[in-house]
Amino acid sequence: MAGDNQKSSLRKDIDENLKRVYEDALKEDVPDRFKLLLEQLKAKESKK
Q1: For the segment 25-46, what is each residue's pLDDT rounded down to a tens digit?
Q2: Which among 3, 12, 17, 28 would be 20 to 30 A from 34, CA to CA?
């Protein structure tokens, strides 16, 4: 049973860490180069 508790605790730790990394990624700004590429794509699409 102790092994099950350790697995459960490990899964909980992994879940918390993944959520934290995901939340941090959502807070990051979109890089300027990516914004420029999106603008260029929109310009090409509007010319069609």
Answers
A1: 999 999 999 999 999 999 999 9
A2: 17
Rg over CA atoms, the chain: 21
Give CA separation, 35 vs 26, 39, 41, in Å: 16, 6, 10
CA pair distance 34, 45, nearest whole angstrom: 17
Tokens of 8: 């459960």
Vertex 24 angle, CA 13 and 17, to 5°: 5
* pTM reported for the whole predicted model: 0.55
| Owner of token pair 């990051």 | 28
